[in-house]
Fold this sequence. Notes:
- The protein is α/β, with parallel strands linked by helices.
- 40% of the residues lie in helices and 20% in strands.
Amino acid sequence: MTEKARIIVCDDEEPMRDMLEELLTDEGYAVTTARDGAELRRLVPKLRPDLVICDLKMPGEDGLSLTRWLRAESHAAVLMLTGMGSVLDRVVGLEMGADDYLAKPFEPAELRSRIKAVLRRTMAQVHAHGRPPARIRVGRCVVDLEQRTMFDETGAKVPLTAMEFDLLYTFITHAKRVLSRDTLLELAHHQRWDPFDRSIDIRITRLRKKLEVDPTKPRVLRTVRGEGYMLVPDGE
């Protein structure tokens, strides 16, 4: 799966671009580099990448704006590179739709691990082969578990990032059970919980906006005070 993955590295620093291109090419990926947002916007429609590695802080259009655009215009996953102390930037990046982030400076081994984890989620094989897709109604939406997609009550496709789908899938497969943040991170994203990591809460807020009739009074994706969260698909 990952040998054929197409990756675009967007970073305004040439040494960083060259280092990432060499490292990822050696890993078997098809790598193209972009020096800024304008070049990335030209490359994405032509190359249709599986993953974009995007620096957050760049002259001109920054990584947050580019992530927002990628979420609307491309199926590519987004791995955002941030400053070591930029906690707020990371939170905003996840809110914009980034699938994961990595703080600079980083170890090559961690980068390789993050990329493999993102691509495992976003390039999963579809096992349809003529069978009708498995679908389940969750709140005001219908989730297609095989196609990893979601539709609203009008039949329109609702955008989901790979991490949002993984989190929703975890809730669906553990419906009506209370799941702590620690459990959710381990089951959905294979990570250990950090008390300062609010990424789960951010994704739950985003899912509620898509699933709930009234996100301010959630009946489908409920908070269980002091314990965690619970999915009640029918909201009853």
